[in-house]
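Check this:
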Amino acid sequence: MVGKLAVVAVGGNSLIRDPRRPDIDSQWDAVHETCRNIAAMIAAGWSVTLTHGNGPQVGTNMERFEIAQRHGLYEVPLDMLVAHTQASIGYMLQQALDSALRRHGINRTIVTVVTQTTVDAADRAFANPDKPVGGFMSEAEARQREAEGWTLREDAGRGWRRVVPSPLPLVLQETNAIRMLVINDYIVIAAGGGGVPVVRDSQGDLRGVRAVIDKDRGGSLLARELRADLFIISTGVERVALNFNRPDQRDLDTLTVAEAERYRDEGHFAPGSMLPKIEACLDFIRHGGPEAIITNPPNLARALHGEAGTRILPAPLPA
């Protein structure tokens, strides 16, 4: 491994820049933009391991397979959809990053590891599903799906959506393989979508469960298990902000753990949006991580020099 190690978590939504244009060509454009910025990090001497979100892609595939079921094809369970998108998004990142690196005169092997993440079968998330997946549906369709065993919730007047458990990630099953690849100077893409959620049954065998793992928490776990020097969450905004989208919005350049916890407790970070990103960064730093950064893809390189993004640190910098 050459240089300090950064784990970069690329948001699934940041791979679809315009929700009105979620087509594959548009996703390729976004992936190429993101990979140009990651390539600049590698050219500057960083060793980089990537992870990514997959929420919009899993949702699209769920709808696609539900349509197929109406024509007699078999159901594809949620854990398999997470595995599918790990492979497809990994493929896109591999290809785009290879091209971006070659423009810097760098020839590296990039590999995607389909990663399983162990969760606790007794995690309270299984009794209280709250993670929306898939598209919106009418109340009539929701009631039909409810009779088939789905859990659904009405979403702010926009329709009904399926909700599934989102348990805490505990262990990445492929950590040793990922670590060896990183040590041997491969660029690794791993734990996509937080990893495929699995539990061990009474016989000690792994089996997938119908749940999704928060990709930021999965990325934080990956960064901790690799003992990364830096954890970066690439998302849709340049900086973390207080009073977001209000006239008195204040962007933050730096946050200590204590400040982040205080602002979190004051309700500044929205659940399902900035809150899981802040908590993932706090998890990384509490487990010994030196620094985390939250920013958007165009500002990745500038954030490394303190010119953009929000840095989260264990304690204030010396005066």
